[in-house]
Each structure stands twice: as C-alpha cells, then as structure tokens.
Amino acid sequence: MALTTLDAKTALVVIDLQRGIVALPTAHPTAEVVQRAALLTEAFRRHGLPVVLVNVAGGAPGRADQTGPKGDFPAGFADLMPELNQQPSDHVVTKRTWGAFTNTDLQAYLQQQGVTQVVLLGVATSIGVESTARFAHELGLNLTLVVDAMTDMNLDAHNNTLARIFPRIGETGTTQEVLDLLERTHA
C-alpha cells in the first residue's frame, strides 16, 4: 500500500542504529540508513512528535538452530549512533529480544503519548524492524515503514520482508515521501 497519511500523533521509532549493529556487514550501506534516520529524527522533533530510539543490549535466552549472542553484549555495542543526535525529549528503549515491545515500556509510552501511528526504520529489516512492526500492527497502530532507511544482514531476507510482510501490516514509503507528508500534514 502506498503511503497515504500521517496521523496527528505519529511517533518515529528507530530500531538498533547503534555501534555494534551498524558495524555488521549488511545488504545496503548502513551509513545511508543512519543518514536518512537522522533526517527523520530531526524532522519529527521539529514538529513536536515523539522520537523513540531503540537499542539492543543483549540476546534473549533459548535454543535456536542459528545461535546468536546470548547475555550481555560487549561495552560500546549498544551505543546509539551520534548522527541521531539523541535529545532529552527522546524516549530510549533498551531491549534484549528482537522486538522493541517485548519486556520494555514502549507500548505504555506510546499509549501515554496518545500515539496512533508509528513510522519505523532501522536494522535489521527481517529481525528487529519486522518483529517490532508485527507487534505494533497487532496492537492496532497504523504503520509506516521507511523502506530506504532500513537494511538487513541478508538481502533475500530484506527483500522478502519488504515484498511479503510489510504490505500486509502497513504502508511503505521512502524517507523523502515521509518528510514531504510530514510537512504537509503537520505544518
């Protein structure tokens, strides 16, 4: 579905744009993802809309065929990228699972702010972004997924999420489309 509107109370949620994740090999250059995220964080702040910066500081316990890190990550791994220009008004969510809602205060924060729509971006498309998007959709939030401000460690997984998952749970658009719509609807 093409991008149609932004609700009066829309929040920007930035997933895992942090030193340890951005340093990983990805399908698209993370510098471009971070640059687009920085443009969006500044625009949302300028319009007085909530900005949520999410990082991951550890892996969830449990067995899996493909194992990732368990427990705490190394020092500095969870540091948010400086380009995001974290502000005191930003809400920071630190997670230990793929999705930003599980065992965090994200849902309560969004409800407290009266948020009805979430604009979502970050790394990795098929992991943290998709998990957070699915949960937001199940909560009944409207979703906008910024397709040029996300990437994945696996191009096939990224493309699958963009083509098969996101159109079923939200609207997709580019950074520029979101910025243009933000200017038109929140001027």
Automatic annotation (TrEMBL):
GO terms for molecular function: hydrolase activity. Residues 10-177 form the Isochorismatase-like domain. InterPro entries: Isochorismatase-like_dom (IPR000868), Isochorismatase-like_hydrls (IPR050272), Isochorismatase-like_sf (IPR036380). The keyword Hydrolase applies. Gene3D superfamilies: Isochorismatase-like (3.40.50.850). Keywords: Hydrolase. This is Nicotinamidase-related amidase. The lineage of its organism: Bacteria, Pseudomonadati, Pseudomonadota, Betaproteobacteria, Burkholderiales.
